[in-house]
Amino acid sequence: MMSIINVENLTFGYDGSSDNIFENVSFHIDTDWKLGFTGRNGRGKTTFMKLLMGKFEYIGKITSSTDFEYFPFSVSDKNMLVMHLAEEICPNAENWELIKELSLLEVEDDVIYRPFSTLSGGEKTKVMLAMLFLRENCFLLIDEPTNHLDMNGREIVSRYLKRKKGFILISHDRAVLDECIDHVLSINRTNIEIEQGNYSSWESNKSARDNFEAVQNEKLKKEIKNLEAAARRAAEHSDKIERTKIGFDPMKTDKLTSRRCSVARKSKKLMNRSKAMEIRIESDIEKKSGLLRNIERTSPLKLPIMKFHSNKLLSIKNLSIYYDSKMICSDISFDINAGDIIALSGRNGCGKTSVIKLICGENISHTGDIIMNRQLKISRISQDFSGLFGNLSDYAVSHGFDESLFKAILRKLDFSREQFEKDISDFSDGQKKKVMIAASLCTPAHLYIWDEPLNYLDVYSRRQLEDLIISCKPSMLIVEHDKTFCEAVNAQYCKF
After folding, report:
1. What dihedral do alpha carbons 443, 444, 446, 450 form, nearest 10°?
2. Is the sign of the CA dihedral 378, 380, 386, 387 positive or negative?
3. Contact 185, 266 (CB under 8 A)
4. Nearest 5°: phi and psi at 199?
5. How much is the pTM?
6. pLDDT of residue 237
7. What angle do CA 454, 459, 461 make, to 5 degrees?
8. Is residue 254 scored above 70 in pLDDT?
9. In the chain, what's the furthest Cα-to-Cα distance?
10. Quick one: DSSP state of residue 68?
11. Phi and psi for 326 in degrees, rounded to 5?
């Protein structure tokens, strides 16, 4: 049954922070909506989810007649059978109902008899979603469910969510958002907005609003400039007339007295006109200050590409990879030439990341050949955040980056100067990913190898990377499941 989630005058900021994340925010959400939640990294999307869950104290009021459930939830005993976990999460649901939900997510029936720990990442995502949607009187808070899912998995999840209602979905995958949402909740620079439609319609409307405001801003700038010039001329003319008036002799003829009165009236009229112009200028400046507040400005990024002495950078011949004598991929062959953008494509667990690890020198059991010159310089982005700690200055020094360049790139990726003083381990996952991207962009290389660079990354930063690759035309090997991104950079697929 439909109900309303009311947010009234919400104000919240973390202890020790100089700025509030939310300042006197009010809006409402219909619990039947399929709500896509968008905004730049670090703007407070996950924080808002936690506020709804009652995790933090805040000023204001959040009222709802429904319960909130968060995805992904913690599983205390990962060796528990999936069917027993379901008894905890959705106790009123029958096994057949869970199997039915899992079938919509293209998960085999026997998964319910397996320990949760034995499930793949994609299976865990699907199982948790199915369980949460079987809970009664719940509004789901779904945080980045498609991270680490392959393209096929993303399509399955988005089709599943399209059949459902009553959720907020944090996602930066434009194709997923377009498939399954009917409203957009956006955290802008200065406010929060809700708009009906999918992501593309919201983006189109926002672009139109931004363009309109930019045009109005230019008009007002010209108008203010003209008014200021006119006000100066009027003031100067008024002063000149006033000086003439002061020079009159009161003992002179009535004619002169009459003229003096006329000059005084003219002077007063000009002074009033000048004052009116000043008021108009102040009004226009106030209007102008209300424009452009929510325009997300992005700056172009650059890559320090090194030219290699040969056109062919890398050759993979008949590669097969093994873990514990189990073959996870076989007979993989591809070449990377200068200017190529190769995207490794395939289901989760098929060996894409393992190929990258092998190329970068890690010891993994394999057969076949990896042919590359020892002089080939590689810049890599991995999926592993474990090496991210300490402040940004120390991180730059320890990795041999130019600190000024490193921080300049992060500023272009929407880092505030306040972030520079924080420990990297306290960053959001999206901000951590930006640190790794900035590190790669500081590293001169012949070949850039990026393993799922877009995970957790906001749409604006994704577009920055798209524009970077299109303009700089680097040699790249990527693993990325964002179909929109891969198409934009014209990646050539190597399918496993």
Report:
1. 20
2. positive
3. no
4. -65, -45
5. 0.78
6. 67
7. 70
8. no
9. 119
10. E
11. -95, 125
Mutual angle of helices 121-133 and 95-104, in 10-degree steps: 120
User: CB 448: neighbour CB atoms within 10 A?
Assistant: 24
Token reading at 470: 């299109």
User: What is the per-residue pLDDT for 288?
Assistant: 54
CA 313 to chain centre: 33
Sign of CA dihedral 415, 418, 423, 428: negative
CA 9 to chain centre: 25
Domain 4-197 and domain 312-495, same fold? Reply is yes
Distance CA 77, CA 87 (A): 13
CATH number assigned to the domain with residue range 4-197, chosen from the 4 options 1.10.357.10, 3.40.50.300, 3.40.47.10, 3.90.1300.10: 3.40.50.300
**In the block, which residue shows the tokens 């085999």?**
108
Helices vs. strands in the chain: H and E counts, helices first? 14, 17
What is the torsion angle, in degrees rounded to the nearest 10, for the CA atoms of residue 56, residue 59, residue 61 and residue 62?
-30
Tokens of 170: 């944090």
Identify the helix (H) or strand (E) that includes residue 298.
Answer: none
pLDDT in tens, 373-426: 989 999 999 999 988 999 999 999 999 999 999 999 999 999 988 889 899 998
- Please calculate the CA angle 457-198-462 and round it to the nearest 5 degrees: 20
* Helix, strand, coil abundance in the chain, percent, nearest 5: 45, 20, 35
Sheet holding 312-323, edge to edge: 326-337, 312-323, 366-372
Q: Give the architecture-level CATH label for domain 312-495.
A: 3-Layer(aba) Sandwich (3.40)
